[in-house]
Amino acid sequence: MTLAPRLSHIAAQASVSEATVSRVLNGKPGVADTTRQRVLAALDVLGYERPVRLRQRSAGLIGLVTPELTNPIFPAFAQVVEQVLAGHGYTPVLCTQMPGGATEDELVEQLVERGVGGIVFLSGLHADTSSDPSRYASLTERGVPFVLINGYNERISAPFVSPDDHAAMRMAVRHLTDLGHQRLGLAVGPLRYVPSRRKQEGFLEAVGEGQSGLVQSTLFSVEGGQVAAGALLDQGCTGIVCGSDMMALGVIRAARERGLDVPGDLSVVGFDDSQLIAFTDPPLTTVRQPVQAMATAAVGALLEEIGGNPVQRTEFVFQPELVVRGSTAQAR
Prior knowledge:
Layout: H1 7-14, H2 18-25, H3 33-45, E1 61-66, H4 73-87, E2 91-96, H5 104-114, E3 118-122, H6 134-141, E4 146-149, E5 160-163, H7 165-178, E6 183-188, H8 194-207, E7 212-217, H9 222-234, E8 239-242, H10 245-257, E9 267-272, E10 285-288, H11 291-306, E11 315-318, E12 321-323
Parallel strand pairs: 1-2, 1-3, 3-4, 4-5, 5-11, 6-7, 6-8, 8-9, 9-10
Antiparallel strand pairs: 10-12
């Protein structure tokens, strides 16, 4: 049973009078557009159904579809996306994909039913080369603008925002070789994901002829890093580059279980540099994703699409930077 909207609740949430809420709900004129959007957003936030006549596409709501938020890089992106949207008067609707929860397609359907003005996809199915990209074409046909972060697919016509994974691996490998490491490993997520594949390519290119480079593809998690580290340490690696900071923490855990010191016996480089990573033990050397710049650009591209001035439907690539901390040291 759907509860009838309480005018007082909606008025308080939207910071307007009950009379204004009544005018909006009854489709009466004489309400400023920004005020109308605030009232509609308040309905959504409080979980009330919009009156049928008000369900046309709202300029006020933008969907943000993210993976699970256990990896702190995803909340970091979500926070910047939400800040930038709020600064432009939009209300973000966060949709998180949990294992066993709603699928990306189900979340998108819910967002479209809510009448969102556009959608930001963060590390979604677009990054998975084994998934069908036609779902995005059908979204375009339905007139819903969208932008995609992390994971380029040339079969999808939309603006993409990515970090330069090849450059990231060059920085990490150069740092380790400058420290005298000659046998290097890469712990990375499943290779069906574009960012994993690009990191593998960049790593092997950077290692080149003179060095030895080994790749272990596991899961993008602490446990995945731990499993990858076991195989790479068995093969004599003294420096390991990781596809995410979470994997790097797993590598450090695996090294300690073997009685190895980080960075004395093993140097470890992560990827992402979300907020807490400077405070790990040891503080993690990592390649920083330019989250602020990427998220701001993604929202900017989406708002241009919504405004009828579409930007180029191509990939915008952002430069990462190496942040040297305490998990890397001179090779013994």
